[in-house]
Specification:
With 160 residues, this protein is mainly alpha-helical. Helix content is 75%, strand content 0%. The protein has 2 domains: 37 residues; 109 residues, no CATH class.
Length: 160
């Protein structure tokens, strides 16, 4: 996090502080893997990484997490600045996101329980998130709030 925050702004990317942050991160990751290999009860059993489904779902979860973190962290501030609403109203405008996430999660869980088919869902969800992020990238301050809430609902539906 410090590398992303400080690198290129507070310090040059070749500054010894930035390079030492990268080095410590890499050494810590290698140390973590070595300890996990020797531990009787590891936090993350390394044999899981041999499973393609585990790797794909972990990667998809990472991408969705990054998209959710960015959108959930930035959108309330955007709504405050672009539409001159206070913090409470900005939070309330995020309700469609949470509502769509709830409905999509319950609906997809029931669908998997009834049909037993699930492999198409991450693909469809990723496509929905991609469409929603494209829609969100077109936001302008003059757009109606209902339209932004609809974009957020599409985004949350794909994230479920």
């Amino acid at each position: 996090m410090l590398f992303a925050t400080w690198g290129g702004s507070k310090y040059d990317c070749t500054d010894p502080i930035i390079l030492s942050l990268v080095t410590v991160t890499i050494v810590s990751a290698v140390g973590f893997v070595l300890v996990e290999r020797c531990t009787a009860e590891p936090i993350i059993p390394l044999h899981l990484f041999k499973d393609l489904n585990f790797n794909l779902s972990t990667f998809a979860g990472l991408l969705i997490g990054v998209a959710m973190f960015g959108a959930i962290g930035y959108l309330p501030t955007y709504l405050q600045m672009a539409f001159s609403v206070n913090a409470t109203d900005s939070g309330l405008l995020m309700i469609p996101t949470m509502g769509a996430l709830l409905v999509a999660s319950i609906g997809s869980g029931q669908l998997v329980s009834k049909t037993g088919r699930y492999k198409w869902m991450p693909i469809a969800g990723s496509v929905l998130v991609g469409i929603a992020l494209v829609l969100l990238s077109t936001l302008k301050p003059g757009q109606p709030l209902w339209e932004i809430c609809a974009y957020l609902a599409v985004w949350a539906s794909g994230s479920a």
